[in-house]
């Protein structure tokens, strides 16, 4: 599962990371953000049943890890994240802060002294 396919989208209010993970157990998926880096990892194991012999094995098994850099100059806030796992698709959404308002010039009053 090293090459877990993913799409990365930027919306006006969030970044979305969408990954295909069919057959994954939800509690086997871990998501973490550190230093503007989103990491998603987990493991899918093959179920071994006694007396069963595989004639062909094409499905990917094992550990996986995907890392996605969050823009350093962005207004993404890792504290406001959500994750959804539905129909084998895992989606992580990282919210964005609204763009900062333009700075207004500061007016300074000047005192005039007459001697």
From the structure above, extract its key features.
115 residues; mainly beta; Immunoglobulin-like; four-stranded antiparallel sheet; three-stranded antiparallel sheet; 7 strands; 0% helix; rod-shaped
Question: Brief overview, please?
Answer:
This protein has 115 residues and is mainly beta. The chain contains no helices and 7 strands.
Mean pLDDT: 83
Q: Fill in the CATH topology.
A: Immunoglobulin-like
Residue runs with pLDDT of under 50 for 5 or more positions: none
Report the C-alpha radius of gyration, rounded.
Answer: 24 Å
CATH class division: Mainly Beta
How many structurally independent domains? 1
> Number of helix segments?
0
Alpha-beta content class: mainly beta
Overall body shape? rod-shaped
What's the arrangement of strands in the largest beta sheet?
1-2-7-6
Architecture, CATH level 2? Sandwich
Q: Give the percentage of residues in beta strands.
A: over 45%
Span between N and C termini? 83 Å
Spell out the helices and strands N to C. Answer: EEEEEEE
Helix content: under 10%
């Amino acid at each position: 599962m090293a090459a877990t396919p993913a799409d990365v989208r930027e919306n006006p209010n969030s970044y979305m990371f969408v990954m295909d993970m069919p057959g994954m157990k939800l509690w086997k998926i871990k998501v973490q953000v550190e230093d503007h880096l989103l990491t998603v990892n987990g493991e899918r194991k093959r179920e071994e049943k006694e007396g069963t012999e595989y004639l062909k094995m094409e499905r990917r098994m094992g550990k996986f890890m995907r890392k996605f850099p969050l823009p350093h100059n962005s207004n993404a806030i890792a504290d406001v994240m959500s994750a959804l796992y539905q129909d084998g698709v895992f989606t992580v959404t990282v919210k964005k802060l609204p763009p900062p308002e333009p700075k207004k010039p500061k007016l300074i009053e000047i005192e005039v002294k007459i001697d």
